[in-house]
Amino acid sequence: MLSTMQDGPLSLAKLLRHGTKVHAASEVITWTGSEARRETYADLGKHAARLAHALRSLGVTGDQRVGTFMWNNAEHLAAYLAVPAMGAVLHTLNIRLFPEQLTFVANHAEDHVVIVDGTLVPLLAKNLSGMKTVKHVIVANGDASALAAPEGVTVHSYDELLAGQPDEFEWPEIDERSAAAMCYTSGTTGDPKGVVYSHRSIWLHSMQVCMSDSMRLAQEDTALAIVPMFHAMSWGLPYAALMVGASLLMPDRFLQPAPIAALLAAEKPTFAAAVPTIWQGLLAHLDTNPQDISHLREVVVGGSAAPPALMHAFEERYGVPILHAWGMTETSPLGSVARPPASATGEQRWGYRYTQGRFPASVSARLIDDDGQERDWDNEAVGELEVSGPWIAGGYYGGSDGAPSPDPEKFHGGWLRTGDVGKISQDGFLTLTDRAKDVIKSGGEWISSVDLENQVMGHPAVAEAAVVGIPDEKWDERPLVAVVVREGESVTAEQLRDYLADKVAKWQLPENWTFVPEVPKTSVGKFDKKRIRASYSEGKLDISQF
Amino acid sequence: MLSTMQDGPLSLAKLLRHGTKVHAASEVITWTGSEARRETYADLGKHAARLAHALRSLGVTGDQRVGTFMWNNAEHLAAYLAVPAMGAVLHTLNIRLFPEQLTFVANHAEDHVVIVDGTLVPLLAKNLSGMKTVKHVIVANGDASALAAPEGVTVHSYDELLAGQPDEFEWPEIDERSAAAMCYTSGTTGDPKGVVYSHRSIWLHSMQVCMSDSMRLAQEDTALAIVPMFHAMSWGLPYAALMVGASLLMPDRFLQPAPIAALLAAEKPTFAAAVPTIWQGLLAHLDTNPQDISHLREVVVGGSAAPPALMHAFEERYGVPILHAWGMTETSPLGSVARPPASATGEQRWGYRYTQGRFPASVSARLIDDDGQERDWDNEAVGELEVSGPWIAGGYYGGSDGAPSPDPEKFHGGWLRTGDVGKISQDGFLTLTDRAKDVIKSGGEWISSVDLENQVMGHPAVAEAAVVGIPDEKWDERPLVAVVVREGESVTAEQLRDYLADKVAKWQLPENWTFVPEVPKTSVGKFDKKRIRASYSEGKLDISQF
Questions:
Q1: Which of the listed residues A382, A413, A436 is the one where a domain comes to its end?
Q2: How many CB pairs under 8 A join A and B?
Q3: Do A15 and A56 fall within a single domain?
Q4: For chain A, the helix, strand and coil percentages under 3-state DSSP, each to the nearest 5
Q5: Which residues are CB-neighbours of B545 under 8 A, at least 6 positions away?
Q6: Burial zone of A31 (CB within 10 Å; 0-12 exposed, 13-18 middle, 19+ buried)
Q7: pLDDT band at A216, cuts 50/70/90?
Q8: Are residues A414 and A375 in the same domain?
Q9: Would you state the pLDDT for residue B187?
Q10: What is the complex's ipTM, to 2 decimals?
Q11: What range does the record give for the signal peptide (chains A, B) (predicted)?
Q12: ω into residue B406 within 30 of 0, thus cis?
């Protein structure tokens, strides 16, 4: 029996029409370093129409890919709207990828056009000759003549190209399961993998961002989107803002603590989103340059685990609650959000808030052990987290002539294998303890590398510590700790081991230690444990063992 | 280009699993007149599984219809979950329909089973012999032996039928566009019309109920659902509550002001939903029996326009904001919600709050005039409201052997003609001024019957007044006012006309007046203008004309 409901698609053209008409007076506010430039959503709608006409004039048709190599600003937001709404596919290029990754993703996605911010022209120029399908580069917010294009590539000025284009565009009707946008994961193994979001998945995800169990983004918010628009769609804020009429505050390239503090003071946003390192930096700045930031009703932290000390500092010293969330490029990224249950009080609330959070109804979750068995939700049993739902990837982009790649290491039976290891409480709160590839499998038991790192980093002489598993004949694997000593301090491996003795189970105590000047990092600032393991196996590390 | 997103359906089986697992500790609380009986969502999940097994045991298969003839209580909620999740279709029977309408809808939907509350057995018994497809009646919360069944109908005790059934059910995977639930509109013309909601439409609508631009239903809420579960699915509260883990407070049959006040005192809900007459009654009760109700963070009012005086009384005397909303059975029902823009202050906020509200992104709206032309959103141009979206009906149920009825009077070109007439502001706020069939078309201009009614009811001697258009040779139509005089007062038509003289445009001043003991009402308590017009044309009204 069929329902009698209407059958129209969920589409970004509909979102664009809604946001720019019903919420015409809301604004995208772009920071210029000293002041803000403002565009109402009504004007943004016209801007997006001009951009769509300009892209058509360059031959963009069908589902061709349009790359962006941009900061968070009004021009990037116009591309977020115009490109999918015209039926093409937005490809946000991560400006922090290594050159070989950058050319790989542009070629794999077959980007036809790239829109680039003026200040990023030098970075793009180094890679452009390797991008074989790019025919046009549009330079926004800067001087197009600064770019010497390789043969076969035409360079355009964004302003000149859009000038005189019509303010309205006949946005086509699009099947909701069509591609709208794509983003490559900067995985630490192999080539980057493409995740392709649909109009449907983005629509549903945008609703979720505005729901009570997630970020509660609302019309009365001004949302500071520090998380880059090339990182998992800036966690969904741009589209969600258009959906409910929240204003968007865009920091452009001004991501250091002092300019962030300045734009907080000038624009007083009510909501913000960024990874922990941004908040760590801001906290240090504020502690020496006090400023009232209580206009922030809440800030969401994800990308990596938020340290409890950071959460307490923001709440107790600045009156700003940090909302902890978990997600990844493959999950659009909203996976779980740590809003404590109403029944929790006092310290209990903090306990819930430290976790990675609870799953919304659209995200189903399970924990799977080494034998493929599902584990209980008892906050003790540990397994690899698997998720499924309408904004969760079921495969990676297989290129224009290939079906999505099934990739059984990541996807099986309708579930995404997240590669994250953890436990879930009876009331559905997720606590991640490690990455599956980093967990140390010692004598049939799992040792969390992250737990060990946190314990070692608790020592006052330690600036950073990374723990990896190294092969062991007897136990399969044993932990190796790579320590960065704090400037002006000194400590020995033996002292650190003694320090750990009453903090971790005896069988988890590491025998292998090395001191390094710094922990290698990935392009997104996470510990690059693959490189530590490689250095170890190449014999490049000086190991203390006892 | 296809996205790489997973392709699973949005379904009520998924909602059931989520709500009863992740929000296992949340509760459905049913009022018994003096105290509450409580069931956790974990237990509700087992309850729903037992009900599904019981229904299967009665032969319910495929998409057969299961009717409910029930108050708002835990058993009705179990049916909301079990029936659609098992693949069958829930048909909520409106207990206030006239007998011929009730048998019509049960026969048209071909209900196979009806679940009835004990206290409603006498009412159902009167109609049961006319319900030709009903084979089983299940009596919940009462004595099954009190029902003498017609031949071919078996009567069951709910408790006995469910006892011993398994606590788990293998909920099937269902296409998201399949029928989940149906509700007939109690229109004032012709037979009731069936609206069939899909798993998809209910899922999306439930998300919307929890979004910042709608009711903001949240895990920390206890939601008092006064609006009946047979009226447009209790405005979506039951499913939305399971989605985010809000507890549900169910008043069962205790809908009078005193018991509502008692259950407010006992359970201190944070949110509530009902039509204006309920709030009017509660207000009168509270004014003579003061009670703190500030635990209500917000109450939503819809079904008919909320009088501004009611909104002020609740907010200023009891600290409870009334949230005005518009919708209808055909819109699931969430259409628009009156949350003022952040920029509005003071009296401006009230101005926005009196309106029917703003449309969420999923509901597109337009105003159409007599010539089929779209009108501007300038808060002046008046037209019939048309809406479209994923939880808006595109037709009526055509019976099991028919496609959905296209019904061009209600549906055209992918839009629902709401039958409501009004205007929309530039920032998207809807103000309804009349029903399309009640607007009075006089000399090419439209006179709002509702505006005239409100003006006449402003006179201290008037208890109620209804205005209808009657045929006029010169002007096509002219207004007729039917007045109910307040007890102990007296007033003449001439005095009322003088009273109106400086309140409405001269050409709108009514020439035709009649005094009646009461205004006839529909089964849902609205003025039944069809009956007033019929009385007029049958010459049954005593008209003063001047």
A1: A436
A2: 222
A3: yes
A4: 30, 25, 40
A5: B511, B512, B513
A6: buried
A7: very high
A8: yes
A9: 62
A10: 0.92
A11: none
A12: no
The 10s digit of each residue's pLDDT in A333-366 is 999 999 999 999 999 999 999 999 999 999 999 9
Is the same domain home to A399 and A500? no
Mutate to test the interface with B, among A6, A176, A202, A405 (most CBs of B within 10 A): A6
- Can you tell me the distance from the alpha carbon of B339 to that of B211, in angstroms, rounded to the nearest whole number? 12
Q: What is the pLDDT of residue A187?
A: 62
Q: Which two tokens stand for residue A459?
A: 């020592």
Q: Domain with A476 in it: what CATH number?
A: 3.30.300.30
Tens of pLDDT along A51-79?
999 999 999 999 999 999 999 999 999 99
**How many C-beta neighbours within 10 Å does residue B374 have?**
12
Residues in B touching A244 (Cβ below 8 Å) = 211-213, 360-361
Tokens 């039928």 locate to B161
Test B6 with A393 for CB contact under 8 angstroms: yes
pLDDT bracket for residue B371 (50, 70, 90): confident
State pTM to two decimals: 0.93
Q: Chain B residues with CB inside 8 Å of A179's CB?
A: 1-3
- Could B395 and A14 be called an inter-chain contact, meaning their C-beta atoms sit closer than 8 Å? no
> CA of A359, closest CA in chain B: separation in Å?
8
Domain boundary residue among A406, A436, A466?
A: A436
The DSSP line for A166-177 is: -S---PPP--TT
List active site positions of B. 185, 330, 441, 446
Chain B residues touching residue A269 (CB < 8 angstroms): none
The residue among B14, B61, B199, B211 with the most chain A CBs within 10 A of its CB, best to mutate, is B211
Q: What range does the domain containing B467 cover?
A: 438-545
Q: Are residues A15 and A148 in the same domain?
A: yes
- Are A457 and A428 part of one and the same domain? no
Residue A87 lies in a domain: yes
Mean pLDDT for chain B overall: 94
Distance from CA of A243 to the nearest CA of B (A): 6
Looking at the annotation, which residues of A are catalytic? 185, 330, 441, 446
Do A463 and A378 lie in one domain? The reply is no
Q: Is A252 a domain residue?
A: no
Query: Is residue B546's pLDDT more than 80?
Result: no
CATH (domain of A411): 2.30.38.10
Nearest to A4 among B14, B217, B393 (CB): B393
Residue B228 lies in a domain: no
Tally the residues of chain A. Answer: 546
CATH code of the domain in which A112 resides: 3.40.50.12780
Closest partner residue to A5 (CB to CB) among B19, B339, B390 is B390
* Contact call for B388 and A8, based on CB within 8 A: yes
**Residue in the structure block whose two tokens are 């001009």:** A50
Largest interatomic CA distance in chain A: 74
C-alpha distances in Å from residue B513, one per residue of A83, A104, B485, B492: 61, 81, 12, 9
Rounded to whole angstroms, the Cα distance separating B304 from A299 reads 39
pLDDT at B188: 58
Domain count, chain A: 3
Q: Is B219 within 8 Å of A339 when comparing Cβ atoms?
A: yes
Of B18, B196, B216, nearest to A361 by CB-CB distance is B18
Q: Distance, in angstroms, between A371 CA and closest chain B CA?
A: 24
> B31-51: b or e for each residue (b if 16 or more CB lie within 10 Å)?
beeeebeebbbbbbbbbbbbb
> Quick one: A58 and A188 in the same domain?
yes
Beta-carbon-side half-sphere exposure of residue B28 (alpha carbons within 13 Å): 30
DSSP A310: H
- Give the pLDDT mean for B464-489: 94
Q: Is residue A213 domain-resident?
A: no
Residues of A in contact with B338 (CB under 8 A): none
Give me the residue from A5, A342, A394 closest to B198, CB to CB. Answer: A5
